[in-house]
Amino acid sequence: MRRLLELQQKLVPDLTQVLRERYMLLRSIYHLQPIGRRGLAQAMNTTERILRAEVELLKETGLLTVTAAGMHLSGEGQQVLDDMEPLVGELFGLTDLAEGLQKKLGIPEVIVVQGDADQSPWVKEELGRVGARVLKQVVQEGDIVAVTGGTSIASVAKHLTPSASFKNVQFVPARGGLGERVELQANSLAAAMAEKTGATYRLLHVPDRLHPEALQTLLKEPQVQDVLSLLRDTRIVLHGIGDALTMARRRNYSEEELAELVEAGAVSESFGYYFNEAGEIVHRMPTIGLQLEEVHKAETVLSIAGGESKAKAILSFAKQSCQNVLITDEGAARALLSTRL
Amino acid sequence: MRRLLELQQKLVPDLTQVLRERYMLLRSIYHLQPIGRRGLAQAMNTTERILRAEVELLKETGLLTVTAAGMHLSGEGQQVLDDMEPLVGELFGLTDLAEGLQKKLGIPEVIVVQGDADQSPWVKEELGRVGARVLKQVVQEGDIVAVTGGTSIASVAKHLTPSASFKNVQFVPARGGLGERVELQANSLAAAMAEKTGATYRLLHVPDRLHPEALQTLLKEPQVQDVLSLLRDTRIVLHGIGDALTMARRRNYSEEELAELVEAGAVSESFGYYFNEAGEIVHRMPTIGLQLEEVHKAETVLSIAGGESKAKAILSFAKQSCQNVLITDEGAARALLSTRL
DNA sequence: TTGATCGGGACATTTTTTGTCCCTGTGTAT
DNA sequence: ATACACAGGGACAAAAAATGTCCCGATCAA
């Protein structure tokens, strides 16, 4: 199959390009439906007219239906999109990117989805979709799955579906309150995932920014103890990787604190830990939950992060070399590969 | 792979068509090189201008080189052409045609090449190329290969290459003089094939149109006896199939004789035998050589015939049901399948 | 040396693509 | 119930691309 695509690339380069574009179009529609011409044109940054021609063609082929509310993929369109999945890697050269990252970062499995989360919002959706698929594959009955917060993980939650694989699985938030928006907090996501899959969940009720004394008190609570003991048996960790400063700002760090972080050389964040370029911990959020040692002990650590802007952070966290699977996007992958170690 | 082509068909309907055209173009150049724009345009019946655009594109891709003498395939172009071989069947639906013929004619293996020998001269070259490939595959050390005359078999001879497989192989003309042009006679082709492959050959020196008495005398000749005994051990028969009247005319039959043939319902010719629609012998050339019974006894009978005009003849000869492999072209195949038995 | 054929340049003409604007209907939030 | 925003589709001029046609000097073969 790879051979066929290579041949086509040589013999009909322009049409192969068209194939790529049509795929992207189909996928955009899938993620944005129902969507109108103008909105879609903006999302894919082309002009309205040019998109219109494409849409008309796909409509004639029967891959999408057009209603007054906007465009939808038809059943067949959905089918085609699904069928294309195994092709996409080759078509966009993502297989090569994945292999490159695998070697460079020393991560056993790397999956690269097409696009750049910084540029197209629905790439995050793709990351989530793929993340959900992978999670479903690796999860086993009775597993404890620790999840962090963040938009990428939220996207995974969104795309999870009920499955027999999730029998007796418990979703547990990896860390207590980290000062994010509710819908992006680990607690909410653990709950959402459990709800989507038919599994159960536990919560870590820890207010943001506790004083050390208060933390100690809280630690003695049976509920908290309970969750912490579960976390020690975590088999799967599902986490996002953030850019250090972005995360700190989102968590309302003061200017002083930000300056300290910069001073310390923090570039990435995950589980409430901040890492420098070398992958060393330079700061940690004052909260309770999954410890980094426990992450290292987990059988499967699934990292999800995309967008060119995340490249440095991904590289930094990879130095921890605790990951089994990295799911990222083309933008981040290209940026990573063009950085020398 | 088939699935991939179907997918592409849905997403980029033009793609397969263009791919087909480019393939045909590449192949035409291969067979006609060096060839100029105008000549090529005529051969492929398109206009010069439209071909020019194609050529420029392929030139940029590096698949062909352009000299003052005309266009040539580059090494890469040659490579692409070779690599496409396994695709061609699916791309042109030839696999389906071949399967259809296999069922309809009851021949174990049918290979259909793209094109119509009646319309494009180089399709005959393709038949020859494929024929040569197949022969190389089936031939074994020490084999006796009986060959007939005709343009198709001449084309096979042209495309044969030296190979270890042809060790101790003897090429033997299937029948003595059949009144054709020298370069198409069985004798010449046997010699040519032997020369190309590094094998040996024998000749049947029998003048055209002998009187029965003379034939009897000739049969007693040791040389002739020798060859005839070899023919009885033939393991591989490589033969063309002709249209009865065309062959008769080529052999300078008189008007009366032609009328007789028509009367008898002759439609096909091979080995000097003329067959009617039902596959029954209605006439035989007065010469010596391979007998039909011996053809039936041979392990491998490789028939080669192409062009829509040959369809009836192929069907007629197939009634003999002595063939193992039929190599034909799209034109003949389509015509055959649209005829009911 | 001659004559046919080569690739490439040039250009008018046709066809296709693209940009732009407007219209009417429908879903949705107020 | 009523705006209002956004949906798709029609229309058409402008721009761009494809195509038909002719010519030219170079080059190869007879």
UniProtKB/TrEMBL annotation, chains A, B:
Domain CggR N-terminal DNA binding positions: 18-87
Pfam families: CggR_N, Sugar-bind
Gene3D superfamilies per UniProt: 3.40.50.1360, Winged helix-like DNA-binding domain superfamily/Winged helix DNA-binding domain (1.10.10.10)
GO molecular function: carbohydrate binding; DNA binding
Domain of life: Bacteria
InterPro entries assigned to the protein according to its UniProt record, in alphabetical order: CggR_N, NagB/RpiA_transferase-like, SorC_transcr_regulators, Sugar-bd_dom_put, WH-like_DNA-bd_sf, WH_DNA-bd_sf
Span of domain Sugar-binding: 91-338
Keywords: DNA-binding, Transcription, Transcription regulation
Family: Belongs to the SorC transcriptional regulatory family.
This protein's name: Uncharacterized protein
